[in-house]
Amino acid sequence: MDQKMIKKYFAAALLGALIFFLGFISDKLVVDKLSDKKYVKKCLVERENSYIKPNDFSFINPLLDCGDVGNVSHQNINIIKTKVVQFIDEQKANGNITRMSVYFRDLNNGPWFGINEEEEFNPGSLLKVPKMIAVLKEADDDHLILEKNILVKGATSTFVQYFKPEVSLIFDQAYTIDELVRRMIIYSDNDAAAVLGQLLGSNILYKSYEDLGISVPTDGGYLTSVRNYGSFFRILFNASYLSNKYSEKSLRLLSEVTFDKALRVGVPQHVQVAHKFGERTDGGKKQLHDCGIIYVPDKPYLLCVMTRGYSFDTLASIIAQVSRIVYEGVEEKKVE
């Protein structure tokens, strides 16, 4: 091998080693940065400074996501959590619930707490939120898809709802995809959801799960936790998956949900709530959940509550009381 070839191979080997070394150092720096308390503190300050003024958007606040900061030990967070834990224990002792999970997160600067936050439940109609996200992700690429008309020929869902839609689809009538999304969210219409599912197919509907690193649902057997499900509301609030336009549209629709027997009850009417409920019957046991964003002025927070018990009405009342405990805690002792 001549001298020129030796130099060429040597240079290539040196370059490869250099790239590997720089990649290794880069990965290490990223990991170190995410675990660096100074970085997290700086990140949180930048989040506060980037707050979008109300005139720009009403429901979203695209901020730098600093990830989970951890169970912050601020006294007011602990007071709220302690009260909720005591309430849950009382309800269990009285036989009103069998299981319950709660996830709270301050959406301004990230403090959070969870109670049985990793326990899994059947989400029921909560899955209509990621279905909406999947449809609007398509609209980000082609907004005309929302104007497409679909003829609804008859009932397509077999699930019986305890909390029935206030408005149902009229069969043998055409609806735009935009209207089907609206009815699916605001009225929790199962037929609207089923039509959208059939129209778009599982590849499109479940792409958002894959993009976000969340397991894809299977018919009837899908389980999720309050913390995992809360991710959908976080990505809408931060506009980190959909565009600002469609993140805002999503949360606006969720603020118009007609179901008002759980989270909504615990919050004064002047405070906006963008939320979605879900129900499921499994044998003799019921599951009822309500998750969403409560827009306390200058202090929006995410609250997700999932329950198991024997009466939907009782479970709704319990969720409402948890919502009230959290709201009063946030308002009386500001989470800072």
TrEMBL record:
Q: Which interval of the chain is the signal sequence?
A: none
Q: Name one GO molecular function term.
A: beta-lactamase activity
User: What are its GO biological-process terms?
Assistant: beta-lactam antibiotic catabolic process; response to antibiotic
Positions of the Beta-lactamase class A catalytic domain: 101-307
Q: In which domain of life is the source organism classified? A: Bacteria
- InterPro entries under this entry? Beta-lactam/transpept-like, Beta-lactam_cat, Beta-lactam_class-A
Protein name listed in UniProt: Beta-lactamase class A catalytic domain-containing protein
